[in-house]
Amino acid sequence: MLKVRVVRSETAMTDVLREVSLMKMLDHPNIVNLIEVIDDPNTDKFYMVLEYVEGKMVCNNGIGLGEATSRKYLRDIVSGVMYLHSHNIIHGDIKPDNLLVTSTGNVKIGDFSVSQIFEDDDDMLWRSPGTPVFTAPECCQGSAYHGRTADTWAVGVTLYCMITGKYPFLGETLQETYDKIANDPVEIPGDTSPQLADLMQRLLYKDPGDRMTLQAVAAHPWVAGAEGPVPEFVCRCGFGRRNRSDSQEAVQ
């Protein structure tokens, strides 16, 4: 178990209560589990007790993880993000630093601090709180964008990092990074297998309307491999049994 202490402030507590409310609804093998919440009135401290996951994904070393490991990890990531999207949750910050790896090699998605939950399928957002190098082109324009396709772009950037050990778009400054994301074509290494190159290209389409959906990713030949398409997870979580908007109730 991992215990995270939260120092109280009005803004911090609002964000944490939203995160707790969301995490208590989730039940998926590729998502970090929230075990317990402790609100200690004696010390005025608030603790989130999370499932302990041993390792972090390291993808920015210029080497990459290889196709076999990257495929296994991507299957876990896609399964977890599809689960979130099916419940109208946008993660908002998919990246290797938020993808933990268990001792048995399973990936778990963590850090829901900037995640958003919607009452219906309308996933329109107006600002991107995520990490710049994983930001989708449509989020760099300062206009509204769809959260699901932005998450999908971040999955594509993560795959690129897993394969190459590098970011696909990185400038000297924040603005230069955004300019590269919005305008530069993605450079696929010449030794990349055709199926993998196709997958990376389609995940990193600039136009979100042309970008691959996660359902299509789950069935893509490179992802399916010998195991077949990533199966849809049978949900046994608490959605529909809790009031999503009542964060206070979620921590009691």
TrEMBL record:
The keyword Membrane does not apply. Gene3D superfamilies: Transferase(Phosphotransferase) domain 1 (1.10.510.10). One of its GO terms (biological process) is intracellular signal transduction. SMART domains: S_TKc. GO terms for molecular function: ATP binding; protein serine/threonine kinase activity. GO terms for cellular component: cytoplasm. Keywords: ATP-binding, Nucleotide-binding. Residues 1-223 form the Protein kinase domain. PANTHER family: MAP/MICROTUBULE AFFINITY-REGULATING KINASE, SERINE_THREONINE-PROTEIN KINASE GRIK1-RELATED. This is Protein kinase domain-containing protein. It comes from Triticum urartu (Red wild einkorn).
